[in-house]
Design goal:
mainly alpha; 24 helices; 9 strands; 55% helix; 7% strand
Length: 599
């Protein structure tokens, strides 16, 4: 028996709930399954619109992009107003991420400047960072993803430069043609909804890749410190720089965790924690400039101009050999972008963040394809979503609460101020730095490259499941924290074997990036997906398929409402007992069109 909503007498609580739904943009989900006239499930209508992430094939050209736009467009105005609602959070998150993006942009740009003999460098890296970030903040679907020329991109283009020298062609022309092809491949992936394949990339790959990126940042920070003592000790005072690095790192970690302290009130503690990174950078930059011994400054050019001063801004594409190299070299690069961007999106949209406005995998990937065609034409590097920056940015925008019970405490995210103002501000600040780039030499590398790299790497580890399980290897079993599985579900030895395979994969990735085949790094990363799928066979059944699924947080695919409810559980609305309530939302304004009850 079905009755319309006019006949029902919902309680005041239910009426309040419906009013709230009517005034919010529509959520990207449905409560009932659409059927074709023949009675079969209509996958075209239910696939993308039935999930908040949209990771399904729609069956139509650019269907995923259209669904992403429909999902995010109703939230567009609130993306700006929520920036104002975030208040201090918006400002502190933007300042934190500004320094977090400026440091690797300068460090990686300076490295590639030296490696490529001045073909490209800091200026081109910061142009890509700033311009792509500003456009992305305004026009993207999910603006909280931070775009950068990342470490893996730097490794790739370093090998690309070696190839161009080997075949005696102009590097910037090769880079431009690789960009044209990789951007085209990315656009094809986006319009065919192929980003949906990232659903096969489970927590196994996500966690090892996140762990790998954090280790890269830690190794860069340690490497910079070692270089100060071994290669630059005659020119700069290494012990004083080490003291500044350690003091800056300790101060930043202490201030960032101040929300867990017992001093002052909650608002004051949160404010101090929010300003941790910008406050530490400013204070230790002032201290460093008061020190009389020589300290290594940031390796920035004296003025704003192309790194190769004799070239024009637009790259010459008249190179037939470069076309062939570009078509082939773009294949491993598009694999890297597919994993890097989409895993960044997955970790940004992590359930623990409680984001409510939905994802935009296909549309964001389409925009990245356009960026990676355009920027290399100006001699600038490629760009993709950045780890650990993006999840850390979400965390910086979050309103949190500290829960203390049974002698322990943990932090839980209550709400994230999802907005476009903060990412726009990050990249506007980077852009403002370009005309005054030579003045950034007042900031020593000990502050922004050594200490900040170490902080970003270390802060990216807590919560990473691989890191947490590595700690359990050295922890007495009686002191284990609560796990999402029992010892009967997954014995400890099998859990450690699973962890060991992830750790070995990270070591392989680390070794590949430092080998002559570094250009194939994305291929090895993608191979971690079939490794996880066949892990029960690789271990000879020691780790069973069920154990792998439990450790990997994999659950059965969501089913249709009718299929998932074998025995209907009644809900009570007022005095009417119903087995199922079907709510129909208007896609244009999100208001409730109809409520049907099935008794």
């Amino acid at each position: 028996l079905k009755r319309s909503s006019q006949a029902a007498r919902p309680s005041s609580k239910s009426q309040g709930h419906f009013r709230r739904i009517a005034h919010e943009p529509p959520r990207a989900m449905t409560t009932a399954v659409e059927k074709t006239p023949s009675g079969k499930r209509d996958s075209l209508r239910n696939s993308i619109t039935s999930r908040p992430d949209g990771l399904y094939w729609s069956g139509e050209f650019a269907g995923g992009i259209k669904a992403d736009i429909r999902r995010r467009l109703p939230w567009y105005w609130s993306d700006w107003t929520d920036g104002a609602r975030g208040g201090v959070k918006t400002l502190t998150a933007a300042l934190y991420m500004f320094f977090g993006c400026l440091a690797p942009g300068i460090a990686f740009g300076a490295y590639f400047d030296q490696h490529s003999e001045g073909k490209s460098g800091v200026v081109e890296y910061l142009i890509t960072q700033a311009v792509s970030g500003i456009i992305f903040a305004i026009f993207s679907g999910q603006p909280l993803v931070i775009l950068r020329p990342t470490g893996p991109i730097t490794v790739f283009i370093s090998q690309l430069y070696n190839i161009s020298k080997l075949v005696e062609v102009e590097y910037l022309s090769v880079q431009a043609w690789v960009g044209i092809f990789v951007g085209t491949y990315m656009i094809i992936i986006a319009v065919t909804d192929s980003c949906a394949a990232i659903r096969q990339c489970s927590r196994f790959t996500q966690d090892l890749f996140g762990f790998f990126v954090s280790v890269i940042f830690i190794s860069l920070g340690i490497g910079n410190i070692v270089d100060k003592f071994t290669k630059k000790h005659e020119e700069y005072n290494a012990p004083v720089q080490l003291i500044i690095t350690v003091a800056m790192l300790w101060s930043t970690i202490t201030l960032a965790g101040f929300n867990k302290a017992r001093f002052f009130n909650a608002k004051m503690r949160d404010t101090i924690a929010d300003f941790a990174v910008p406050l530490a950078v400013i204070v230790f930059t002032l201290i460093a400039n008061l020190v009389t011994v020589p300290l290594e400054p940031l390796p920035v050019p004296p003025k704003f101009e192309p790194t190769e001063t004799t070239r024009a801004w637009f790259v010459d594409l008249a190179c037939p050999t470069c076309i062939g190299i570009g078509a082939v070299a773009a294949i491993p690069l598009v694999l890297l972008f597919f994993i890097d961007q989409n895993v960044t999106m997955l970790l940004t949209q992590h359930p623990d963040h409680h984001l409510k406005k939905g994802a935009a995998f296909h549309y964001n990937f389409f925009l990245l394809g356009v960026f990676n065609i355009c920027f290399p034409l100006l001699g600038c590097p490629y760009v993709t979503g950045s780890l650990p920056h993006s999840p850390q940015f979400v965390n910086a925008l979050a309103k949190k609460e500290v829960i203390r019970e049974a002698g322990s405490e943990k932090t839980r995210i209550v709400e994230v101020y999802e907005n476009r103002v903060a990412p726009l501000l990050v990249n506007v600040l980077v852009l403002i730095c370009l005309p005054f780039i030579g003045e950034l030499r007042i900031i020593p590398t000990a502050v922004i490259c050594d200490a900040l790299f170490l902080f970003m790497g270390l802060s990216g580890l807590p919560g990473n499941q691989l890191f947490e399980r590595i700690k359990l290897i050295f922890t007495e079993e009686a002191l284990y924290p609560d796990l999402h599985f029992t010892k009967d579900d997954v014995p400890r030895k099998q859990m450690h074997v699973f962890t060991l395979f992830q750790l070995i994969t990270v070591c392989v990735l680390f070794a590949v990036t430092r080998s002559p085949i570094a250009v194939a790094f994305p291929v090895f990363l993608v191979l971690s997906i079939p490794l996880r799928m066949s892990l029960h066979r690789v271990t000879g059944g020691f780790v069973t398929e069920k154990m792998v699924a439990i450790l990997d947080h994999r659950t059965p695919e969501p089913k249709d409402v009718e299929e998932a409810t074998a025995e209907p559980q009644p809900d009570t609305i007022g005095a009417v007992t119903v087995d199922k309530v079907t709510i129909s939302l208007d896609e244009s304004d999100g208001k409730v069109k109809d409520v049907r009850e099935e008794l």
